[in-house]
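Please supply some protein, with fold tokens.
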Amino acid sequence: MNSQRFIFLWFFAILLAGSCTNKSTSNQPKKVAVIVSTLNNPWFVVLAETAAAQAKELGYETKIFDSQNNTALESDHFENAIVSGFSAILLNPTDSDGSIVNAMKAKDAGIPVFCMDREVNSPQAATCQILSDNYSGCVAIGKYFVQSLRTKATDAPIKYVEILGLVGDNNTWNRSKGFHSVVDHYTNFKMVAQQSADFDRNKAMEVLESILQAHPDVNAVFCGNDAMAMGAYQALVAAGKAKDVGVFGFDGADDVMNSIRDGKIKATGLQSPQTMAKTAAQFADEYIKGKRDFAKKIPVAVELVDQENIKDYSTPKKR
């Protein structure tokens, strides 16, 4: 009789302990991971911090992971997010093709992935992709590029350089294609060099320094992002050509917006990392709460900002 009573009490204690553990776990806030390609670029810092802040405001614990433009490191972050019980992943991919396998791992584990700014080349991998309209944005830059440089009105060809971003990122080629869809129609515009600088400021400076040695008479430089535009401008300053060569960027980063105000950079395409990040966080919240019907891609408009309309944009606050 005593042994039966002991077994009953032991079994009851086990049930009670399990009940307490489940209750404690269920009361813990859900977690959202923010995995970004790099935090070595202020623009992506804004994207990551905005996404994390929005998710936190919606009631989630958040953690930012820096992939350092390395798909293998990004894979480690996904493994971490999966085993650590994150409920959603807000992703800025390192590579349009290379990141597919990581997004699919999360999907197979029942974790939705919402891409911000950069896309993965699979309609099945991500729940939704919130992307800047890079092509249209660079069509506008291409038009302004031609318009501003044609005022030189000389018989000699207008020579320019294009500095590309990461070759594995679709944004690189969408921007380049949008730009060339306009500029290539003008036969007096000649691209004398096209080279990648991986969206990196220092690499862009080094790339343009090298190009200027072979082509010292270039008239303009089109850069696939603003970090590279600032690097290109530094190279031109060092070569004593900053006043003679126009620099065009893409992103709307604070330093380039200020450089446009100062008459240094000609123009940029203003993206909204805040819009993309907040939308991704809101969609993750809706998914966690039961929604499943999301558009596969949502384009976010890009605005052309130049030295004429920069006055319409407020001076960026220090972050």
Q: What stands out?
A: The chain has a mean pLDDT of 90.
